[in-house]
Amino acid sequence: MADLEIINLHVRTEEREILHGVSLQVNKGETHALMGPNGSGKSTLANVLMGNDTYEVTEGQIIFNGEDITEEDPEKRSQAGLFLAFQYPAVVPGVSVANFLRLAINAHRDEPINVKEFRDRLKENMDLLKVPREFTSRYLNDGFSGGEKKRAEILQMAMLDPQIAVLDETDSGLDIDALRVVSEGVNALRERGMGSLIITHYQRILDYIKPDFVHILLEGRIVEEGGPELVAKLEEHGYDWIREEVASRAG
Amino acid sequence: MPASDDATTAPATIAADRAAALEIFEKTELPTWRRGGFWTTTLRDLKFDELGPREYPAVSSRDELPQVVRDALGDEQFAGLIVQRGASVIYSEVADDLPAGVIACTLEQAMADHGELTTKYYAKRIGHGEGKFTAANAALWSGGAFFYVPANTEVEKPFQVVNVIDEPGVAQYGRTLAIVDTSGKGIFREYNLAPDIEGQALHSGATEIFVEPNGWAKVKTFQDWGSGEVYDISTKRVAIARDAHARWFPIHLGGHLTKQTLDIVTADRGADMRHNGLYFTQGDELLDLFTTDLHESGDTTGDTVWKGAATGKSKASYEGLIEIREGCQNSHTYLQTHTLMLSKDAKVDAIPSLIVKTDDVSASHGGTVGEVDEHQVFYMRTRGISRQDAIRILVEGFFEPVIEQFEDEALETLVRERIQGKLAEASDDIASYAATK
Ligand SMILES: Nc1ncnc2c1ncn2[C@@H]1O[C@H](COP(=O)(O)OP(=O)(O)O)[C@@H](O)[C@H]1O
Ligand SMILES: [Mg+2]
Prior knowledge:
The complex is a heterodimer. Chain A is of the alpha/beta class. Chain A is about 35% helix and about 25% strand. Chain A has one domain (about 5-250): Rossmann fold (3-Layer(aba) Sandwich). Chain A has helices at about 40-50, 75-80, 95-105, 115-130, 145-160, 175-190, 230-250; strands spanning about 5-10, 15-25, 30-35, 55-65, 65-70, 80-85, 165-170, 195-200, 215-220, 220-225. The relative contact order of chain A is 0.17. The model of chain B is unreliable at about 1-5 (pLDDT under 50). Chain B is α/β, with parallel strands linked by helices. Adenosine-5'-diphosphate binds next to helix 1 of chain A.
């Protein structure tokens, strides 16, 4: 059994079903890309993985490290080693980045982290992600540019050192330099054994983070899976090609 | 005590003023405050006739002060410290390294020793003609605090007055008069404190603060009357002269019923004010604040920001008026109020208003009434933080931008701790409210 198993997941909001039976497996150390056009349900999947209760899971399961976490609280999932870098991170007014990181790290351990250990870890990861010093004293995401928010997400990921991370459109809003830095960060964590699910609808980030597996989500269903060659194919033919494939299969 | 250079004493005018005030007090009914908002603030449950001023013996060290006072003061050093319990100043301290001419003593003492100076300022901004309680204060105050920073003098350590009520039955009429003279600089703190008493008590205070031309003052008024039935009906006013600056932080963290008038007056050209308040109400507390940002002159600037949170069945109302008088061209001011509802049974009102009688000014207001945002809570939970902690962190974070600006470590710690304590007390209520959404 894979470290993270998503089995036949059906998800709906009050109005309608968004995911119609999604299955996906991610192991530690593996890098997966989840691609699909806008509105196909990528962020919904990411949110449901973390336990966002605005969505209802009507069928299927999420298994993490052998445990069924489908109904688990978000904080328990995080503590177990799952992470989501949000497409649209929330603002946490009045709480500095450094303070928030300390609170989050402490929520993952019994004893609060000691000051020096925290400072060293913060410095190491700030260097890794080329985050400027003054960044950590700003209120988290408050007045941040799109790119700054994404960096703050990745900084949190690096500090929390998850087993499996989902990165939801981390590439959007980043210029090419920032994208390179963030990708290097992700690759460094991958070296340490982190598994990841990189959600994107461009291939751009995948030039820097080479996926082992690629899944294509269309209208709430995984319609195509394969290796990195799928990215090139998508690049060349666009999502219309997938749509036609799906239509002809159905036909 | 610095030698007095002004040896006039207890002016007869003040005795006459007391007599006139007493007459008004005695023939005025207990007020009811009709408001623009959801409710009328009444004193119908106040057993006013059963309360009275109470005298207490002086103590000779901080160790003998009531616990609630010691806890709030810690071992901080002050330029001057006056502690008034009931009707009596029971303790005072004056730093021995103060610049020449600085005065810190009881107001009674100041009237005896510095008649000219006190007469110049006393009751100039808070007279006895604003209803039963300003009259009561003017007629019945005793002890009191007087702080004076002379011209061209900077005093770094804060001046501190503490009004404490630690028994039911007490009616306390506190009076604070503080002045920063021309080009002087000073910091004033007023703490109004009570432990959790059983029964009723009243504090009816009057606080006047004057900042003379080119002066600079920071004012911090901190109120926590505990969970007893303490009524606080007070008026506080800060008046800012030409090119002077004042920043006032009113902090309201407890009181059974609070009805206060808190005004800042920019009285002459170049006067600049900042008014940054916060409150947290819980249980069945009622907090009713009316602030006025009054521009008596043109070329004045103001900025008012209030933040409040309400839990339990509490009612909290903040009415903020910007008033710009005739002929006050080129005044610029802004008022905003942000309120956080933490319980379905709490009621909050935030009523900004404008009276502007001059063209060519900018005056505007804005505000929000919000609840803890579920998107923020979910975000924090995905970082391992429990729902309960996430809400606590968000409420603390809501106040933090104001607290941070105190630039006053002792007060910052005090306020953070009190807010944390209140959040802990209200945590079940807050969590059940959050869960309903
Ligand atoms: N909370 C929600 N309430 C209602 N509809 C939603 C909600 N979240 C997503 N949707 C809808 O589900 C579909 C998939 O959205 P989303 O998962 O954000 O797609 P993607 O991330 O692939 O662009 C869209 O049609 C979107 O409008
Ligand atoms: Mg999305």
